[in-house]
């Protein structure tokens, strides 16, 4: 399929999604992106087949046909949008992508660094402190800065490649489970991890996040930087839920954030929830 044909296909499928052919099922038991559709079930095989039939009926009504050679049915593990999703375990990186990272040679130009960072950035949710790790490499991509690959950038390059090998399997977010948002901050980056308890009571990561601070943000006290990380995560992520109500004294920086978000405060507010279950403090990565 040519690039133009692919663009037309994507436009058509997005229009069908907008018209609601499978909208009733989205985020319930269906995930769809462009021409990829994932149907998932936390139940019996019979229930799963009923859901598959519903989706197939919708696609047939829209005049769409599936290529059976590219379909998988009733599998426990599948590749979807660059990730491997395995029932009962979670989400992990595609081994082929990890291999590509490991075989990547040290860049010799700023453009080469951008290519490496662009590839690695796709999996940043798996990497703890991603922004902090890549900071020396990002500095090589600035305008009017001579390219100089030195010991610091080589070390950052190797650390990032190692992080891909040791990255944990992420737990699929479940809005019904107790959720913890833990944040941390360094001098110029803020970040943290969204976690949930699994069926065995272990606290597992759902996603890591990090972002470089603006110059003014670098001057915040450490507790304000960590609150800034929490604010960023709750504003950005669709899956974020905080389980316990937290009240804290307003700081000057938060007032600035309030003014910045006042027009969107209602839609950006994420309700707090707690399922009331008691869990151990065990952590499993």
Automatic annotation (TrEMBL):
Pfam families: RT_RNaseH_2, RVT_1
Domain Reverse transcriptase as annotated: residue spans: 1-85
Biased composition (Basic and acidic residues): 257-269
Residue ranges with Basic residues bias: 275-285
Region of interest: Disordered: 256-285
UniProt protein name: Reverse transcriptase domain-containing protein
């Amino acid at each position: 399929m040519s690039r133009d044909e692919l663009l037309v296909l994507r436009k058509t499928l997005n229009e069908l999604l907008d018209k609601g052919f499978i909208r009733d099922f989205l985020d319930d038991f269906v995930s769809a992106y462009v021409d990829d559709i994932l149907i998932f079930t936390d139940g019996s095989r019979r229930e799963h087949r009923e859901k598959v039939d519903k989706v197939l009926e919708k696609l047939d009504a829209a005049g769409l046909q599936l290529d059976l050679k590219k379909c998988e049915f009733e599998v426990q593990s599948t590749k979807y949008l660059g990730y491997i999703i395995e029932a009962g375990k979670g989400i992990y990186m595609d081994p082929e992508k990890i291999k590509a990272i490991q075989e990547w040679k040290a860049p010799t130009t700023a453009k080469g660094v951008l290519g490496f960072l662009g590839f690695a950035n796709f999996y940043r949710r798996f990497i703890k402190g991603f922004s902090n790790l890549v900071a020396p490499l990002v500095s090589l991509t600035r305008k009017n800065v001579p390219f100089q690959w030195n010991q610091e950038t080589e070390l950052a390059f190797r650390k990032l490649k190692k992080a891909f090998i040791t990255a944990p399997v992420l737990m699929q977010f479940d809005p019904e489970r107790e959720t913890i948002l833990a944040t941390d901050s360094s001098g110029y980056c803020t970040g943290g991890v969204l976690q949930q308890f699994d069926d065995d009571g272990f606290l597992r990561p759902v996603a890591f996040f990090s972002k470089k601070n603006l110059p003014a943000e670098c001057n915040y006290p450490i507790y304000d930087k960590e609150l800034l990380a929490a604010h960023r995560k709750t504003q950005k992520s669709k899956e974020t839920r905080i389980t316990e109500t937290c009240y804290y004294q307003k700081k000057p920086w938060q007032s600035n954030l309030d003014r910045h978000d006042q027009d969107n405060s209602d839609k950006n507010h994420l309700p707090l929830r707690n399922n009331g279950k008691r869990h151990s403090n065990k952590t499993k990565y």
